[in-house]
Amino acid sequence: MSWLFAQLYERGSRKQKTGPIDGWRHELLAQAAGEVVEIGAGNGLNLKHYTDAVTRLVLTEPNQHMRAHLRTRLQVPDGAEVELSEGYAEAIPLPDNSVDTVVSTLVLCSVKSQAAALAEAQRVLRPGGRFLFLEHVGADDPGKALLQRVMKPLCGIFADGCNPTRNTLGAMEAAGFEIEGLQRSQMPGLSGRFAPTIQGSAKVLDR
Ligand SMILES: C[S@@+](CC[C@H](N)C(=O)[O-])C[C@H]1O[C@@H](n2cnc3c(N)ncnc32)[C@H](O)[C@@H]1O
């Protein structure tokens, strides 16, 4: 199903390129600086938002069909080094304390283990580094939460393992991140009413 998801996501990206999510991406990625790793980079919708503050950009994406689309969007800030890797978020192919920013947009819903992915983000971040996130999360509202549970098997099949019910903020806090500048919204469109989003920056508590 990874091929089908890559095709559907690429098709759906036409709307994302100009809709509110594009604005959220822009605001979030303005904070990315220095050496950056983006986990689950997908088909590259974040790329146009990186600024000259980025000196090195490592894009990890395990789905080969997504990577094919990503290659068509490989536009990066002048002077920045860019590398593309097939790594999973649970095993980021970088040394400890080697990046200033980790970026995760619409990925923590899909990783096999949020705890492992977040531990990896902490491992590769230098002291003072930032984890920038934009994620759709489980709803607090009981009606929406019920619908998310009903939708979960379908999302798993057609969105390549996406689980709409996750308490991603709780997982970040449990992993030892301190959340800063949290913004809440919801995905656009009709189905978006059932998909609350969180966006912000997190730093690793003292280690
Ligand atoms: C909904 S797409 C989001 C893509 C992109 N980050 C964006 O904002 O448009 C989810 C992405 O997460 C990737 N993914 C799924 N499991 C992953 C994992 N364990 N590690 C890294 N990426 C993963 C998928 O291949 C897919 O590209």
Describe the overall structure:
There is one protein chain. This protein is an alpha/beta fold. The chain has a single domain, classed as Vaccinia Virus protein VP39 (Rossmann fold, 3-Layer(aba) Sandwich), CATH 3.40.50.150. It has helices at residues 2-16, 20-29, 64-71, 114-124, 142-158, 168-174; strands at residues 34-39, 54-60, 81-85, 99-105, 125-136, 177-186, 196-204. The longest helix has 17 residues, at 142-158. It is globular and about 45 Å long. The mean pLDDT is 93. The structure holds S-adenosylmethionine (SAM). S-adenosylmethionine binds at residues 9, 39-42, 45-46, 61-63, 66, 88-90, 105-107, 110-112, 160.
The spatial strand order of the largest sheet comes to 3-2-1-4-5-7-6
Structure ligands:
S-adenosylmethionine
What form results from the Cα inertia axes? globular
Helix content: 25-40%
- Biggest sheet record: 7 strands, mixed
Q: State the fourth-level CATH superfamily.
A: Vaccinia Virus protein VP39
Uncertain parts: none
Q: Overall mean pLDDT score? A: 93
CATH class, named Alpha Beta
Number of helices: 6
Distance between the termini: 40 Å
> In the residues, how many domains can be counted?
1
Task: Please report the total strand number as a whole number.
Answer: 7
**CATH fold node name:** Rossmann fold
Q: Helix- and strand-based class?
A: alpha/beta
Task: Please compute the radius of gyration using only Cα atoms.
Answer: 16 Å
Give the oligomer, counting copies of the same chain as homo and different chains as hetero: single chain
Question: Any guess at the CATH architecture?
Answer: 3-Layer(aba) Sandwich
Order of helices and strands: HHEEHEEHEHHEE
Beta-strand percent range: 25-35%
